[in-house]
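Q: Structure tokens for this one, please.
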Amino acid sequence: MSRVSLRSLFIAVAVVVAGFQLVAVTLAAVPPNRYSDAAAPRTSYLMPYFTQNWRLFAPSPVAEDREVLFQGSYLAADGSVKKTAWVDWTAVELDLVHHRLVGGRAGYVTNKLYGPLGQAYRGLGTAERETADGTPQRTPPRWAQLRADLRAGGASPTRVGTFLLYEQATARLATDVLLSRWPERPFTAVRYRLRSAPVVPYEARSGTSAERAAARPVATTRDSGWRRPTPGTAAERRTVAAFDRRHR
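A: Here is the predicted structure, written as tokens:
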């Protein structure tokens, strides 16, 4: 094959890949509808870490602080089930952003997870949400069983699949974070909390610290159901532990 033909082939492949990526990002970013649901099997490679976040722009610019916290359940020496304190992993990540001129992508994981976690949860029906929220602390179901339980009421397989994709990714990060804090504890379950604190209204921003705090709207939270601990690889756990030591 001539050099010109190879170059043309390379350009054609690059154009096709770029076009597919553009269409995939567009379909993944639009509100859920029958077209985005139909395309979900082709765009799933974007999730959970390569989705797009448009909240810097109108009509919905950033107007709240968002946090993802993790909590673990473990067996105490007397056989009782206890909970750890909540670990604010967003605060740990933000330490990287606050103390470096150019932060790394590691400082944005929970920010990328927050919106899709809520969107995937809202995509479930009322019965499926109750199932997802009602998993037991001592013996949370395996992922295959949770999928079957969510599908039992006839829920959309695409929406259930998207929900579980983000739940598993978050449970994996939560497990690694909790093991970095308490490596010897026999964890039985993990869960996350989404916390949203609206910013101080513009007209109150010139007040004192106490006045600004009083004017700030009350934060809202949502706790997930308990999920089975899902540790990452040994290398991933070491990376999370090292990051935690440097930035907490």
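A few notes: The longest helix spans residues 3-29. The CA atoms of residues 41 and 158 lie 8 Å apart.
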